[in-house]
C-alpha cells in the first residue's frame, strides 16, 4: 500500500495552540483530518516565557488532534513569530569561474550560503533567506536565472532575522513534548499561503494577521515577498483595555469584545447597554456599548497605524510598488465587527477579510475555514511541501519497535538538468520562480532544522 503523505502544522500562538493534521485529496485540495486546540499558557507576545506550561499546552493540543483524527503525530512544522523578528533587505553577488556554463541550482545555493554568513547582532540568527529578483552581468529583473549564461550572478534578498534563544526554546518545547521538528516557517508567510491567491501576490497585497499577542505583516508584489514585520500588539491589548476601562475581569472583557465589540463607535446608539453579573454577590455592572466601542476603536486605530507605518516603509506610495490588491485581514482579530471598514478608512486601501478556504476541500468544517485558523492551515501546507509522513494511523503504531522510524530530513539539492529538461513553453515563468525559491527555502530549512536538532541534542 502506498504511504500517505500526512502533514502536521503546529501554531504556537499567544492565546491558543493549534495542532492540525491534513493531507491532499485527489483534487489537490487540503483535507483536514483532525484539529487539536488548547489554551496557550507560557507564551507572551509570540515568545515562549515558560517552558513547562508551553510543553503541557502543546501536548494537550497534540493529544486532541490525535484523538480527533485517529493518527499518531511524529513530527510538525511550526510557525515562528514574536516581537524579536525583524527583516532586512540585502544584495549580494558571486563571480562564476566559467561564464560559458549554464547557471544552475548550485550557483543560487552558493549565493544563499554567502548571505547566511552575514554578520548579525549578538544573539540573532537568520531564519529565512528569500531571493527576490536576480541580475546577471548587469541585466536586471530576472525572475528565473537557472538555464541562463553569465559571469556575475547577483540577487536582492529579503532576510528574516530572529533571536536564536527564542527559536531554540520553541525547539526544546516541541522535542520535550515527544515529537520532532520537521520545519520552521515565519507565521505571516504561512498565513499568506493559506489566504492569498497568486493573482493578489502578483498585483501587490499586504497581509495583516491580527493574533492575540502580535500583529504580523507580509507584503507581496510581483509574486515575491517584499517586506515582513511583527508588531508586538494584538487582540489581547484590546481585552486589557476593556478590562481596565470597564473595571471587569478578563473573562468578561473577552466575552464583551467578541459578542458586542465593534471597531466603529458610531454604530452603537447611546441607550444600548449590557448588564454584567457582579462578582460574589456584588451588584451587576451596566456597560454602554458606545463606550465599549470607543475603547476598542482607540486601540485598533493604534495597531492599524503601526502596521500602516510599516506599509509606508516598504514604499507603497511609489507607483512601481503600488499594492493594487490592497489589504487582506486575517487571524482572530479580523473577526471584530467593522474592522474592515475602519482599516479602509485609515489606509484608503481596498480591504477584505481573508479566510483559509481557498485551499481547503469543499467538505471542510466551517470552523476550520475561520480566519482564526489561517496560520495553522498554512503550516499544514508547508508540511505537505516537505513530502514527509508526519503522522501514521493509530492502528499502524502497534508494530514491534526494533526498527525505529528514520526521522532524518532529506536535503534536496536542486538539479539543473531536471529544471532545464522540464521547461515547457506554456509553463508560466512565475511558477518556475516560485518553485526555485521554494526548493531553495526547503533546502535551507532542512539544514537549519538539523542545526537546531544538533543544538538540542548537545544541550541535554
TrEMBL record:
Chief location of this protein within or outside the cell: membrane
Keyword Ribosomal protein set for record: no
Keywords: Cell cycle, Cell division, Cell membrane, Membrane
Residues passing through the membrane, by range: none
Domain SHS2 as annotated: residue spans: 7-195
UniProt-annotated location(s): Cell membrane
Pfam family, one: SHS2_FTSA
GO cellular component: cell division site; cytoplasmic side of plasma membrane
SMART domains from the UniProt entry: FtsA (SM00842)
Family stated for the protein in its record: Belongs to the FtsA/MreB family.
PANTHER family: CELL DIVISION PROTEIN FTSA, CELL DIVISION PROTEIN FTSA-RELATED
Subunit structure as annotated in this protein's UniProt entry: Self-interacts. Interacts with FtsZ.
Name the record gives this protein: Cell division protein FtsA
Protein source organism: Flavobacterium glaciei
Taxonomic path: Bacteria, Pseudomonadati, Bacteroidota, Flavobacteriia, Flavobacteriales
Amino acid at each position: 500500500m502506498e504511504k500517505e503523505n500526512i502533514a502536521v502544522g503546529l501554531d504556537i500562538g499567544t492565546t491558543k495552540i493549534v495542532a492540525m493534521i491534513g493531507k491532499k485529496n485527489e483534487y489537490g485540495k487540503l483535507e483536514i483530518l483532525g484539529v487539536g486546540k488548547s489554551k496557550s499558557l507560557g507564551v507572551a507576545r509570540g515568545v515562549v516565557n515558560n517552558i513547562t506550561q508551553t510543553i503541557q499546552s502543546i501536548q494537550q493540543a497534540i493529544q486532541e488532534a490525535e484523538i480527533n483524527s485517529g493518527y499518531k503525530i511524529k513530527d510538525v512544522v511550526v510557525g515562528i513569530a514574536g516581537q524579536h523578528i525583524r527583516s532586512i533587505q540585502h544584495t549580494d553577488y558571486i563571480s562564476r569561474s566559467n561564464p560559458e556554463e549554464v547557471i544552475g541550482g548550485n550557483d543560487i545555493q552558493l549565493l544563499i550560503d554567502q548571505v547566511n554568513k552575514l554578520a548579525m547582532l549578538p544573539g540573532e540568527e537568520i531564519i529565512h533567506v528569500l531571493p527576490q529578483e536576480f541580475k546577471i552581468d548587469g541585466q536586471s529583473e530576472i525572475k528565473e536565472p537557472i538555464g541562463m549564461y553569465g559571469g556575475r550572478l547577483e540577487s536582492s534578498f529579503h532576510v528574516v532575522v530572529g533571536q536564536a534563544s527564542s527559536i531554540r526554546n520553541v525547539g526544546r518545547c516541541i522535542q520535550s513534548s515527544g515529537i520532532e521538528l520537521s520545519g520552521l516557517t515565519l507565521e505571516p508567510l504561512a498565513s499568506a499561503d493559506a489566504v492569498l491567491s497568486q493573482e493578489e501576490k502578483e498585483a501587490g497585497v499586504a497581509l495583516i494577521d491580527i493574533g492575540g499577542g502580535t500583529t504580523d505583516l507580509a507584503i507581496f508584489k510581483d509574486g515575491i515577498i517584499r517586506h515582513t514585520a511583527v508588531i508586538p500588539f494584538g487582540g489581547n491589548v484590546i481585552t486589557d483595555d476593556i478590562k481596565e476601562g470597564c473595571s471587569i475581569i478578563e473573562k468578561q472583557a473577552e466575552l464583551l469584545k467578541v459578542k458586542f465589540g465593534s471597531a466603529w463607535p458610531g454604530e452603537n446608539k447611546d441607550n444600548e447597554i449590557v448588564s454584567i453579573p457582579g462578582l460574589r454577590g456584588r451588584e451587576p455592572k451596566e456597560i454602554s456599548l458606545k463606550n465599549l466601542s470607543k475603547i476598542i476603536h482607540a486601540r485598533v486605530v493604534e495597531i492599524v497605524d503601526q502596521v500602516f507605518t510599516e506599509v509606508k516603509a516598504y514604499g507603497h506610495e511609489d507607483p512601481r510598488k503600488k499594492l493594487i490588491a490592497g489589504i487582506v485581514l486575517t487571524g482572530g482579530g479580523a473577526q471584530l465587527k467593522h474592522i474592515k471598514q475602519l482599516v479602509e478608512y485609515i489606509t484608503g486601501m481596498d480591504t477584505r477579510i481573508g479566510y483559509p478556504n481557498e485551499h481547503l476541500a469543499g467538505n471542510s468544517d466551517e470552523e476550520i475555514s475561520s480566519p482564526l485558523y489561517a496560520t495553522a492551515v498554512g503550516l499544514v501546507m508547508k508540511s505537505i511541501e516537505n513530502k514527509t509522513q508526519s503522522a501514521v494511523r493509530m492502528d499502524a503504531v502497534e508494530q514491534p519497535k526494533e526498527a525505529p522510524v528514520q526521522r532524518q530530513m532529506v536535503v534536496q539539492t536542486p538539479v539543473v538538468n531536471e529544471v532545464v529538461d522540464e521547461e515547457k513553453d506554456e509553463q508560466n515563468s512565475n511558477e518556475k520562480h516560485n518553485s526555485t525559491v521554494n526548493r531553495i527555502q526547503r533546502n535551507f530549512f532542512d539544514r537549519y532544522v538539523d542545526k537546531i536538532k544538533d543544538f538540542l541534542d548537545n544541550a541535554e
